[in-house]
Design goal:
By secondary structure, the chain is an alpha+beta fold. It has a single domain, classed as Beta Barrel (OB fold (Dihydrolipoamide Acetyltransferase, E2P)), CATH 2.40.50.180. A five-stranded mixed sheet has the order 1-4-5-3-2. A three-stranded antiparallel sheet has the order 6-7-8, with no helix packed on it.
């Protein structure tokens, strides 16, 4: 799976998250990012897999908020995230690749997942490009995440 690089504010190591009582299990907790309160989403639970644990390889992507995205937007840039900075906890980072617009393919109709935006084929591999705005709108997809 991949995220559009322009949506990423920074990537950090997994740290201690401050738990939030009553939050959905998918929320690892909160962190303080230079004075900003940032909610951290566990991608393992978001994709109905094993919970991502804090390890030497795990990372937290801090995504730009919509205001920060508008500051870097260009004509080919069609992405939104959230009014606030949100973090997503991943088990590891692989490669950074360049993808041209013509390489972006529609997700097949039989793969119905609200967080998927595009598919990119690289040789024999497929990379799912995530839709950050939908991934970060937990209330809209609560039935999927329960």
């Amino acid at each position: 799976m991949g995220l559009p690089i322009p949506a990423i504010l920074e990537i950090g190591r997994s740290i201690n998250f401050h738990p939030v009582r009553g939050a959905p299990e998918i929320i690892d907790g909160l962190i303080n990012l230079r004075g900003k309160v940032v909610t951290i989403i566990n991608t393992g639970l978001a994709f109905e897999a094993e919970k991502v644990k804090s390890t030497d390889e795990s990372r937290v992507y801090i995504l730009k908020n919509n205001t920060e995205l508008r500051e870097v937007a260009d004509a080919d840039f069609d992405i939104e995230t959230s009014p606030d900075n949100i973090g997503i906890h991943v088990d590891r980072i692989a490669d950074v690749i360049s993808v041209e617009n013509e390489d972006l393919q529609t997700v097949p109709a039989n793969i119905n997942h609200p967080f998927y935006k595009h598919v990119v084929r690289r040789g024999e591999e497929f990379i799912i490009i995530l839709e950050p705005q939908k991934m970060l709108n937990l209330n809209e997809h609560q039935e999927l995440l329960s």
